[in-house]
C-alpha cells in the first residue's frame, strides 16, 4: 500500500472480507500503515484481520490492530483477528489490557476563561511571591543580626570562602569595567565641554557621575549577574538533591548555614568592590583627560579636591550595603524556590539576576531622589 | 562440588543464539582494573541477572555494553555486530533496538511522562503527533501507571512510578533488549514484587531479552532465567538459580546461602 515494509490488502471472499497484513507490523512503519488502515471502511458482515503473513509484531502494531478492530466494530462490522501464534496473541492481549485502562483526559477549560484565570493567578502569585520575598528578607536580617550579637556562632570558613568568590575574584572584571567607563566618560565629556571652552570641568563631570552613581551602580549590576546567579544556582541544585532537607533534619538552619554567610560576604565585599570601581574609573577618566585635554595628573587631583566633596563619595558608598543585601537575598530566595526539574534551576537563576538588577535600579532611583530633595 | 564450572557452563550456551557476546573485556579506571578478560553471553529471549559485590563492576559492564563507557580491550557483539567498531550510523541503528532503564529512571525532568516517552519517537521515527500521543498513552498503562500519570512531571511521581515511567520510555522504540540497572532498588517489597511481575510479563508478551543488574534475591528467584556472578574481575560463573546453589566459591556461597537468600527461597 506504500513504501513501508508492511502491506495491507483487502480481499472479499465468500465468507466476508479479509484484511491481510503482510511484512513487519512494527512502529517504524506505523504512520503509512495507519493511514491505510484509516481508509478501510466497515461493511456489513464479518471482517477478518489476517496476521498469518506478519513477520514481526510489536506493541505499536498491536495498538493499530486493536484500534482498527474497535473502530470497525463500532461501525457495525463483526471483526476477528486471525492467524496469530501464541506470542502474538499474548502481545495483543497485553496491549488490549493496557488500552482498556486508558481514561479519557478531563476536557481542557475554554480559552478565554483559561486566560482570565491565568491572569488572575499571575497577579495573585506576584503579590504572594512579593510577600514571600519580604518574609525571606526579614528572616535573613533577623538571623544575621542574631549572629552579630553572638559572633562565636558565625561560620568563618564559608564566610571567607564566599568573600573570596564574590569579592576577591570579581576584582579584575570590576576594575576593568570601571576603568573603561572612566575612559568613555572622559572622552565624551571632553569632546562636549571643549565646544565652549570648559574643558577643566571634565574632572567634575567624571568625579560626580562616577562617585555618586555609576561606580557603585555598575558594580552592583555586575555582582548581581555574577554572584546573584551563582547563589541561586548553587542553592537550587542543593535543593534538588535534597541537601536542604537533609540540613533541616540534622537541625541545621539553611538560612543560617547558606544564606547568612553569602549575605554577609556581599555586605562586606560590595562596598570594597564599589570603592575599587570608583578609583579605577577616576584613573581611566584622568588618563583620558590628560591625553585628550592635557589636564595633568596634578591638575586633575587639585580640581578633584576643590570641586568634589567627600560627600559625593559617601553618597555612592551608602547605597552599597542596600544593593548587597538585595542581591544576596534575591539570589538565595530564588535558589530556595527551585523545585523538581533541572529546568527550574535555570528559570530561577534567570529570575534571580533580572529581579536583583531591577531592584538595584529601583533602589538607586529612590536614593537619587532622596539625596536631591535633601539638597546633597 | 568443583569450584570451576564456569568454562563448561559458558561453552554450551555459546552454541545457541547469543544476542550479546562479550569477549576478553578489560576495563581500567586509572590504575584500578575493574574487568580483566571478562566473557559473557546473553541469549535471545532470556532474563539474565547480573550479581556481584559492590565495586565488582556490574554497572560498569552495563555502561560498557550500552556504549557509555569505552573499554580498554575486548570485543562486544550485539545483534552480531561489533558495537565498538561499527560506524556512527550503524551504532544509532543498534541503539534504537535496545532500551535502558537507569536506576532512578533518569527521566527528563522538564518534560512530562508522556513527552518523555515520545522523546525517542520524535528523534528516530516519523510519526504524526496524534499517533505518538496514542502510543504514549498506551505505554503509560502498559507499564501499570494510571493514565493520568502521562500528564505529570517526573518530580510529581513517587520513586516506583518514576521507574515504571523510565521503563515506558525504554520501551518507546519497541526494543529487543532492555537493560535494567537495579530496577527494584529503593522500592518496597510489594512494589518490587509488582515490578518484577511487570518485567516478567512484558518480557514474555513482548519477547524481550532482559539484561538486569540487581541485588534483589527475590528478583533473581522470581524472574531470572540465568544468573551471572561477577567476581575476581570476570564473570565467575553463570547458570540457573539451582546451579548457583551448587557453586563452591566463598562469595557465591555466602550470597546464595546467606540468611537473606534462605528467606527469599522460602518465600
Automatic annotation (TrEMBL), chain A:
Residues 6-98 form the STAS domain. InterPro entries: ABC_MlaE_roteobac (IPR003453), MlaB-like_STAS (IPR058548), Permease_MalE (IPR030802), STAS_dom (IPR002645), STAS_dom_sf (IPR036513). The keyword DNA-binding does not apply. It is found in: Cell inner membrane. The chain crosses the membrane at residues 124-145, 166-188, 200-224, 264-291, 311-338, 350-371. Keywords: Cell inner membrane, Cell membrane, Membrane, Transmembrane, Transmembrane helix. Its main location: membrane. This is Phospholipid/cholesterol/gamma-HCH transport system permease protein. It comes from Albimonas donghaensis.
From TrEMBL, chain B:
Residues 20-257 form the ABC transporter domain. The keyword Protein transport does not apply. The keyword Transcription does not apply. InterPro entries: AAA+_ATPase, ABC_transporter-like_ATP-bd, ABC_transporter-like_CS, P-loop_NTPase. Keywords: ATP-binding, Nucleotide-binding, Transport. GO terms for molecular function: ATP binding; ATP hydrolysis activity. This is Phospholipid/cholesterol/gamma-HCH transport system ATP-binding protein. It comes from Albimonas donghaensis.
